[in-house]
Amino acid sequence: xxxxxxxxxxxxxxxxxxxxxxxNAGAETGALILLEEDQLTVVAQCSGxxxxxxxxxxxxxxxTIPVSVIHSAERTQETLVFDNxxxxxxxxxxxxxxxxxxxxxxxxxxxxxxxxxxILYLENNLNTGVFTSDRLQVLRLLMAQAAISLENxxxxxxxxxxxxxxxxxxxxxxxxxxxxxxxxxxxxxALRQSEANYRNLLQTANSVILRYDPQGxxxxxxxxxxxxxxxxxxxxxxxxxxxxxxxxxxxxGRDLRPFIHDLLHNPQSYPQVEGENLCRDGRRxxxxxxxxxxxxxxxxxxxxxxxxxxxxxxxxxxxxxxRSEAKFRNIFENSQVGIFRVRLSxxxxxxxxxxxxxxxxxxxxxxxxxxxxxxxxxADPSDxxxxxxxxxxxxxVRSFEAQMRKRDGTLFWGLFSLYxxxxxxxxxxxVADISDRKQAEAALQASEAxxxxxxxxxxDPLFIFTTEGQLVCAIKGNPSYGELLxxxxxxxxxxxxxxxxxxxxxFLSYIQQVVxxxxxxxxxxxxxxxxxxxxxxxxxxxxxxxxxxxxxxxITLQKQAEAAxxxxxxxxxxxxxxxxxxQAFTGILAQVGAANQVLTDDVEATEAHLDxxxxxxxxxxxxxxxxxxxxxxxxxxxxxxQSALHRLVAQLRTAAMDTTLYYEIEGAVYALPTEVESNFxxxxxxxxxxxxxxxxxxxxxxxxxxxRDQVCLRVKDNGQGFGVGSIPSSEGFGLLxxxxxxxxxxxxxxxRSQPGQGTEIIVxxxxx
Length: 768
Prior knowledge:
Elements: H1 10-25, E1 29-36, E2 39-47, E3 50-53, E4 57-58, H2 67-76, E5 80-82, H3 95-100, E6 104-112, E7 115-124, H4 133-182, H5 188-204, E8 208-212, E9 218-221, H6 223-229, H7 233-236, H8 257-265, E10 272-278, E11 284-295, E12 301-310, H9 312-334, E13 338-343, E14 349-352, H10 354-359, H11 381-394, E15 396-405, E16 411-421, E17 426-433, H12 435-456, E18 462-466, E19 471-475, H13 479-485, H14 495-498, H15 501-517, E20 521-529, E21 532-543, E22 547-554, H16 556-598, H17 603-630, H18 641-655, E23 660-666, H19 674-694, E24 699-706, E25 710-717, H20 733-744, E26 748-753, E27 759-766
Parallel strand pairs: 23-24
Antiparallel strand pairs: 1-2, 1-7, 2-3, 2-4, 5-6, 6-7, 8-9, 8-12, 10-11, 11-12, 13-14, 13-17, 15-16, 16-17, 18-19, 18-22, 20-21, 21-22, 24-25, 25-27, 26-27
Helix pairs in contact: 1-4, 4-5, 4-9, 16-17, 18-19, 19-20
């Protein structure tokens, strides 16, 4: 086979391609399978440590690849990437994968114009998850270019073989033609037969065959040429080359007229040329031409015979390869990470891009390539020694951090990934400046340490819950507090696994309210633990990722002190009532009796008794009012309306063991005037008292809804119900009291009840 200028050698291309792919993909080994005569054939088996084995094998006969994976990629024409192939259910039984215990695996179809031409197989048994999406994108780009190069290399081999065969045939035929011309006078019959054979050869050849005179006028073109160039025979014969198939300038702007002029006069100087030609529709194609001058007996040039073969695809492939090389060169030169090659023996820098030069304080790669030794730029020389040891052991090192020194002595942190080519005594790699990241990590560690110290100083337990009520973090502070809130080690458990359903529902409603409103919520609640009631005050705050922080404090002693204080105060008030109101009313009764005795006998005495009665009554009224104020319940004094209702519900749960009580809050909570909240609470208290004492209900629901413009309180039970209009006023004092309280604060009261259908009491008040 002859070798033409710029010829692509398939074996050399395959070896180079596999070396580039293995190095860029981070693979240990790889294989290239090509489709030859409709059969997949392994044409190369390569690894990073040795030259490629280019012996061809059928896929079924190759012991270094998983055959099932190859056939799957052939069938689906989709890339297969496994982070740990031995755990892949579909291929875990493949004999090769079982034997090799394959980890990272990649099998990529190679397509050319949507047709499968081959398969790339890579593996790495040192690490899992090697073939990342970034590497996959680079491989796809490489294989897209490789597909063109492989096809053109094959085409070029066939083209070279064909050109050699055709050239030999043309040369042989030309010699025969010359001999026939010399013998023409001897036998016209032989000449005509020879000419017929010659014409038949020209017409059936798969090449463009032209004959034209020294003025460039075309005298003959075979059928293949006519069809290929898009002409009818009469449209091209008799016309010149420039009028038909040769442009005056090529794509690159070169003037072709001087060249064609010289060819027409000295064809022997251009036995083989390659050039750009025109089709009739304006398309430009590339041809490799073999030219032969035809002379008469006087040695005068009478015609030129040119045989051309289409090389357009090869030229396009070469141009694509050049563009690809330019692209990768541009990536190399303009990459935002340093790229370098270093001699292993002494650390001399053999190649580097602009970014690498800038990282070390140089203006250009020319200042350091072949001049600088990298060893001196390690802040700690032992880091370099350690890196070399790792490279010699593993042949590849990724994400190696070391502190480096610029030319001016400035320190920075570098992140290295390197590959060792021991055969050629050099390492290749990339380096990125991670100083900002290292500073951020140090700052984050300091911040975390400060935060942990701060949290550890908090005496109260701190918990983090998700929106669904799952406990994800617990910092217990004082251990006893943590045990009170979380009865067992519950990380990962939900509220419904840690508490009874009523308690869990209540706590979950708090969490969802905080997540919805994105506002801090303060609540009080009690739990029965170890046979005694424990009270807590909790602050619940939203944090990111739809989670909340729950900070709880034991306020049982405070609650007990409050209860004792209330009891003492009520006893005191009872004594005062006895000492004041009781005496006042006793005096009134005595004065009334006295007045009755003297009413008819002594008018003046009667009037004196009546005046004294009035004074005693007035004094008793004042004391009664003072006592009522002193004896008002304290539910609202230690919190908001919603927390007071919560405590009321909690108290009733303890007292009414056969009744299930639900308490829900909807909307963003806001404060109402004190009188409004007090009367709301009294109405709710009365409604709950009626439901628990008289309704015989087994379920009561309390709902407090905050709308933008109004607040609504609902108390609904499933008890026996009653006819609203059928209750005498003397027996319905509680309903009358609720109505009066609603009227006092400008609220609307609705009572819905039917015998056997439960009761619903609704009170609504405007916000303003």
